[in-house]
Amino acid sequence: MKKTTPFGAIEVLDAHTHFFSHRFFQTLISQSPALSKEADSMARVGEITGWTMPPRNPAELAATWQSELDRHQLSAAMMMANVPNDEESIATAVATFPNRIIGGFFLDPTKPDAETRAKRAFDELHLRVACLFPAMFHFSMAENEGARAVVALISERPGTAIFVHCGALSVGVRKKLGLLSKFDLRYSNPLEIYKLAAEFPRANFIVPHFGGGMFREAMMLADLCPNVFLDTSSSNKWMQYEPSPTNLATILQQALQVVGHERLLFGSDSSFFPRGWVSDVFYAQVDALLKIGVSEEQAQAILGGNLKRLFGLP
Predict the structure, then answer these.
(1) Domains, the chain, with CATH or none
(2) Backbone torsion region of residue 80, taken as left when φ is above 0, otherwise alpha when ψ lies between -120 and 50, otherwise beta
(3) Which residues have a Cβ under 8 Å from the Cβ of 312 and sit 6 or more positions away?
(4) Residue from 136, 134, 108 nearest 121 by CA
(5) Neighbours of 96 (CB within 10 A)
(6) Mean local confidence (pLDDT), 103-113
(7) Helix or strand holding residue 290 (H, E)
(8) Is the bond leading into 134 cis (omega within 30 degrees of zero)?
(9) pLDDT digits (tens, 9 = 90+) for 43-60
(10) Are 128 and 134 in contact (CB under 8 A)?
């Protein structure tokens, strides 16, 4: 499937979307005493957020996403579960649409069963991406043994990757529901990844949002480690933290100069319905690529080709 763009008909794959399953919302509800007391807590969450609550069966949510990908002419998307222990939901989605959904699972490497869970996710559930949030679970990528064990597993499994969220971290739905987010941004520096990326050169790392406000550090990491990819996802509001005024075009220009077009992955950060796939993010990135004069070949790589190559997709 190809999408019509100013660069021509291009196969687009989204490297960063979220699979907000029924279990995801159940987990959030369990963290709120007020919501837990509601007669229909799921409906109440829908009222508060204005979002469409997902069905219990993950296959039905996967079908909704498949229709959304068709509507926007996307070949595939990496979709991640969003709470620990929700591997089954995203695995069901992958099993339902194996050619359209690339599965990512949320992992807390500080737990004693982290390595076992990761191995099962890769080998039995056919998931491809372990998603780690150091600031959320208060661990150092450079020092945590669970993280090292997961990276070691990935280094032995071509077509897999480890996604590490860096920089600013804010979970909008938690704010909407009045849930505290006790994150520790001291663990958010992309340079924390360097030790493992250097030790395991066959393991592929994905750093989303250009480092999420730590752009300089993300550039340093990716420049030093050829197994580090950067995703371009979301509105990139972190640019307001830059010391001088900047925009998406200048960020992409510098990323191309330092990292090259072969390790940039288009991502939208799409997550909930009825909003669905965030096409505005895609077109903003296409416009920025046009402004800096990338070639059709480079655009094809960034907007989908690199993700296909990373995961060895046909």
Answers:
(1) 3-311 (3.20.20.140)
(2) beta
(3) 158, 159
(4) 108
(5) 18
(6) 98
(7) helix 279-291
(8) no
(9) 999 999 999 999 999 999
(10) no
